[in-house]
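Re: that backbone. Tokens:
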């Protein structure tokens, strides 16, 4: 799990990222991100709705897998971004390692991660 200081909190922050930021679509999730005007650490939010699965165990597995992928990349992630991952139903059928690889490539494609 990533440290609490890297977690995006508050409904208004999530809505701001989704409305004002850019959204990229990937097979397992959408990635919404917004560049802030400060140079503080980037913050991350994870949304896995009940539309993805009614089973909380499955929703939490997806959330944890994406969270771990972000944690592994923390040293490569640029500062000053708010980032929200919006999970899709396809994420249920993917193994954790594939979700982690997709997360890494998504962050790189968005220009948020350096490698």
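Recovered sequence:
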């Amino acid at each position: 799990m990533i440290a609490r200081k890297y977690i995006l909190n508050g409904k208004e922050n999530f809505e701001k990222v989704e409305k004002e930021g850019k959204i990229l679509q990937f097979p397992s999730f959408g990635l919404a991100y917004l560049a802030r005007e400060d140079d503080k650490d980037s913050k991350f939010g994870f949304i896995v709705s009940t539309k993805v699965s009614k089973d909380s165990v499955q929703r939490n597995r997806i959330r944890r897998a994406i969270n771990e992928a972000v944690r592994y990349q923390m040293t490569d992630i640029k500062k000053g971004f708010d980032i929200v991952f919006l999970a899709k139903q396809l994420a249920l059928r993917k193994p954790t390692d594939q979700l982690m690889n997709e997360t890494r490539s998504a962050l790189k494609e968005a220009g948020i991660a350096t490698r």
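The chain has one domain: 4-109. The chain has a mean pLDDT of 94.
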